[in-house]
Hints:
The structure holds two protein chains of two kinds. Chain A is built from three helices and six strands; from the N terminus they run ββββαβααβ. By secondary structure, chain A is α+β, with helices and mostly antiparallel strands. In chain A, the strands form two sheets. In chain A, strands 2-3-4-6 form a four-stranded antiparallel sheet. A two-stranded antiparallel sheet of chain A has the order 1-5. The longest helix of chain A is centred in the middle third of the chain and has 17 residues, at 69-85. Chain A is globular, with a radius of gyration of 16 Å. Chain B has seven helices and 18 strands. The interface between A and B is medium-sized, with 26 and 44 residues.
Amino acid sequence: MSSGMTIRRCRRAIREERVDDALFLIDEKEEAIHVLDTTASAIWHVIAEPIDRDEIVGLFEVAFPEVDGKAIERDIDGALSFFADAGLLASRRARSTASTVENTVKKARPKCERDLLS
Amino acid sequence: MATLRVKMFGQPVDFVDCPGLLDGFLSILTGWAVDGPMPVDDTPAYVTFTRDADGHHWNAPWLADGCERKIVPSTSTVDAVCDFHYEFIDWFADRHPSHLCLHAAAVRIGEGLVLFPCVQRAGKSTLVGQFAAMGHEVFGDDVVGIEPRDDHGFALGLAPRLRLPLPNRAMDKGLEEFLLDRRGLSDDTCMYLDLRRGEIADLGRTAPIRAVCILERKDEGPAEIGDLSVSRALRSLIDQNFGVLHRPGRIFDRLRAVAEKADRYVLRYSDLRDAADRIVARVTSHAGREDATCRAA
Lengths: 118, 297
């Protein structure tokens, strides 16, 4: 996610459900359910209003002074990449992996290869 | 070309040059309505299986995402049954759009089901065999439905399938003898269990889901049970849902209700009998608490 880039959530309604420490985002239009961990759900709340990517980093650096700045940037970029991939931001970007976010999207049926036998 | 036609749930299914495949399927399906063989007329087949020099093939024009699938090289009956095993589940899901389908195992202990969402190589099929050997009814070792009325577990009537060789280190002599006695369609890499009436639930049999249990294998030591949060149970259920994908809000609500209502735990185990005993004790103790609460009320 580029420095100085303004982040906006997508315009469509996304239902939010908190269960324990996880936040579930239910996207009826895209037929997907996403599960966010604590960090990603915090970022999701921060981007409820348009905000610059660097401002998010600054907020987290203040909130978690004991955490390495590079790690914070990595987590934030990972979450933003995930939101973008999932179509949860106003503008999409190329597909990538987000390590801080766990997502549960359209599932394929179980594979039937023999090496999946348990 | 020799075509053998049967009807499954009233729909024609053709086996072209592969009569052994029908016998193979019949040996792993419990409670599925299969009539025939019957004469082939002009009615198009709902599903056609064929065999040629390359292997077995499947053609199901009704499947939204693809219809013809070639498996190379599933030349033996066991290979073909293994490969096409899941097509029956797709078929079921297509015809029952309100049922959820979970990649999970389930056994009935008392009046309720314990659901084991799939974790790769957690040993759930062999554990299911252990439960069967102890007299508990198998609802599935790999896929379980959830019916729409009460969100109860729903058996798909598919025989458990175990990888070979069996994990002898994790099982006692009694289980080994039970599994070998129930050995059904098999080759040297896998075996289906040919369970008897009462040991496996027919397609369509339902029971309330009393517990959700995540399995974790460990190398040694006694089985341990830990609590599982609602969110982790729910995540595992959502992650393993593959039948219905539209209306995610409805899916979420249904699975959340299942996760909240069920007893939830993580089982770490090395020995199958030890694991099954711990689960039975936990389920029985939980059921006892519920009964006591009901009596007190």
